[in-house]
Every structure is written in C-alpha cells, then in structure tokens.
Amino acid sequence: MTTLPPGYTRIKRVNSFQELLTTRFEGGVNALCWPRTLPGDFGEVLDLLGGGEGIVTLDEARLRILPVGTAGRVAIDVLLTDLRLLREQDRDPLLNCIHGYPRDEDPGPVPTDVFSFHADSAPVEADTWLCTYHGPASEGLRNDQARRRVDVPETRAELLRLFGGEDNDDFREHLKENCYDLHYAPDVDAQPFSFGLGHLWRIACDWPGSPVPPCIHRAPATLPGQLPRLLLIS
User: Fold this and answer.
1) Residue 122: is it exposed, middle or buried by C-beta count within 10 angstroms (0-12/13-18/19+)?
2) pLDDT in tens, 220-234
3) Predicted confidence (pLDDT) per residue in 4-30, tens digit
C-alpha cells in the first residue's frame, strides 16, 4: 500500500477500475488511486527484455513471446489486462521500459524535464493515467506545499530579463509556449509522496475550466545499475 499524505483531501482511494474511471474530480479532489498488490515477477520480464537506452515502448507481440517462467507470465498477463482495460475506454496507453530520461541541457531559471515537479496540460478536459510496475515510482507533491516557479519573484524577474520585454500578455504567452508555467517549486518543508508500485492512478490535468487544480508530480531519479522502470501512461 502506498503511503499517502495524512489528512490530505485532494487524493481519493477507489476500489475498482470502474470506480477509477467514473469518479469525477470535484470537491478539491485531483488524484484518484486504485491501490493494488499485483501478482507476478515484473523483474523477470525486464531481465528478459535486455538492455537499452532512453525510453523503449513495448508492444504486446514482444511481451507475448518472452520466454518467461510462470511468475513472469502472470506479470505479462497483468500488463496486457491493464492495456486492454484502457483501450476499451478509447484511451491510447503506452507501456514504457525506461532506461533513462533526457535532461535539460540548459535548464535556465526553470527546469522543464520530467524530473521537475510539474502538471500535465491539455486544451480540453483531460486526465493522465499512471502505474509503475517496477523500479522507482512516480512522485507527487501536495498543491499546498508548492508554488509555480513563474510566480517566484526572483525566477520571474530572471525569465523576464531573458525574454527582453515587459510583463504583459506577450510575456505570459512566452511562459505558456515554453511550459514554464507548468512547473512547480516545492516549499522548503514540503514532503513529496510516492505513487507506489502496482497502484493505478488517474490524475487531473491543467485545462481551461477545470474544477480542480492539477495534480503535481514528477518522474523519480534513475540510478546507474538499476533495472529500468516499467511504466504505464495514458
């Protein structure tokens, strides 16, 4: 069971895929978690997939022909079932084997890679689904322990200096185009929380008219020598 922030009311646990699918983001709730203890050996699956670099998207055909044992086959069945459940809802899930993520070569005042706490965004109503099956899990940050980096006076002043203009609609459009306005700085005493392994999450995005603030999250650090992450995202 993942340990959620005590007393934090923006996260709601649900008991089934159907409940995860149909529960609305309202009353301040911006993250839904279906806690699961999954059977199977996902490490065996990763061992047999072999090495690689960056992010490798896995297809069903490759998973089905892996020469896994019984526990590995159970893990593959879990992966295929999750993919099927989401596709039946007209989602387009990806199962990624993540050896490493690209980093900002020159992050400047606001880092914008996936290791930075951020919100997903969309022009219309949307949400993000996540599940980590193996490796370090995604991390969340309480909204009340975060501040948009572009709202930090020193950071905004530096962004404005680099922009070379005034703090007006053009500047705000510049922030949006570069996704600077989607990244957050944790408070000094902030306590990020883990999304845990095996749990299926549905989290709110930043979209016009959203009744709740977006869920702030990031990818965990990946360390040399670790097996890659196995992540479902949609």
Assistant:
1) middle
2) 977 777 778 999 999
3) 788 899 999 999 999 999 999 999 999
> Identity (one letter) of the amino acid at 124?
V
Which of 65, 85, 86 shows the shortest CA–CA distance to 76? 65
Is pTM beyond 0.85 here? yes
Measuring CA to CA, which residue among 153, 177, 179 is closest to residue 167? 153
Identify the CA nearest to 95 among candidates 108, 82, 109, 114.
82
Q: Give me 218's structure tokens.
A: 């990031």
C-alpha distances in Å from residue 14, one per residue of 111, 188, 201: 33, 31, 10
Residue 200 has a CB neighbour count (10 Å cut-off) of 22
Positive or negative CA dihedral for 191, 12, 195, 55? Answer: negative
